Amino acid sequence: MNRHTLLFLICMMFAQSCANNSSIFLLEPSSTMSITGKGPGQDATINPYLGNDCTAIVKSLSKNIFQVRIEESDEVVYTITVDPFQEVKIDLNNSQVLYLDALSKPSKSKVSFSK
Fold first, then answer.
1. How far out from the chain centre does Cα 89 lie?
2. Cα torsion at 24, 29, 35, 37 (round to 10°)?
3. Which residues have a Cβ under 8 Å from the Cβ of 94 and sit 6 or more positions away?
4. pLDDT at 17 over 50
5. 22 and 111 in contact (C-beta within 8 Å)?
6. Kind of pairing between the strands at 23-27 and 66-72
7. Which of 68, 94, 104, 111 places its Cα 20 to 30 Å from the Cα of 61?
8. Across-strand partners of 27?
9. Confidence band for 81, pLDDT divided at 50, 70 and 90
10. Measured between alpha carbons, how far is 74 from 97 in angstroms, rounded to an integer?
């Protein structure tokens, strides 16, 4: 494989990873992380649909459970417990804030968004 082909493949992999708009998070026990909804510079990941209704896709990447908490106007709307290796899709309106809450054990999750 020549250098140009290798460089092209690396660029394509990088472009694909950027297109996914997903982030991986490590949650320590009893920690809370604002994932999206607070605004630029305050969110843990970029929501490419900020200001619009969208769907958050949250996937557990570990054997420990954690919770997803949705708030609106500083009020908890609902919480969802995510089981080990489970994926959940959550419809978010443009004014909702998504949090990940670790419980008693560390966990790892992946968050991405779709329209």
1. 11
2. 170
3. 50, 51, 52, 53
4. no
5. yes
6. unpaired
7. 94
8. 107
9. very high
10. 9
